[in-house]
Write a structure and sequence with these properties.
With about 80 residues, the chain is mainly α. It is about 60% helix and about 0% strand.
C-alpha cells in the first residue's frame, strides 16, 4: 500500500519515487500547496475507492499520516 502511495505522490509532484521519503510533507515542496493537497486527496480516494471526511483530510499532512489514514479507511470497509 505504501509503495502505491509513494508512486502517486511521485507522479503528482513530478519527482522520482526515490525522492519520496517519510520526511515528505505538506509544504515541503513548493508544488504541494492546498490546491495540490485537494487534488492528491481526490486521486487517493479514486485509487483506493475510499471517501475521506474533511477532518481526516486535514490530518493527512505527510507520507506516514496519509498511509495510516488510508489503511484505516480500507480496514473499515
Amino acid at each position: 500500500m505504501k509503495s502505491k502511495i509513494v508512486t502517486i505522490l511521485a507522479e503528482e509532484l513530478d519527482v522520482p519515487e526515490r525522492k519520496i521519503t517519510d520526511k515528505i510533507s505538506f509544504g515541503k515542496y513548493q508544488k504541494w500547496d492546498s490546491l495540490f493537497h485537494i487534488n492528491l486527496i481526490v486521486r487517493l480516494e479514486e485509487v483506493f475507492d475510499i471517501v475521506l471526511e474533511p477532518e481526516e483530510i486535514s490530518e493527512m499532512r505527510d507520507l506516514s499520516s496519509i498511509t495510516k489514514m488510508i489503511d484505516k479507511k480500507i480496514s473499515e470497509r
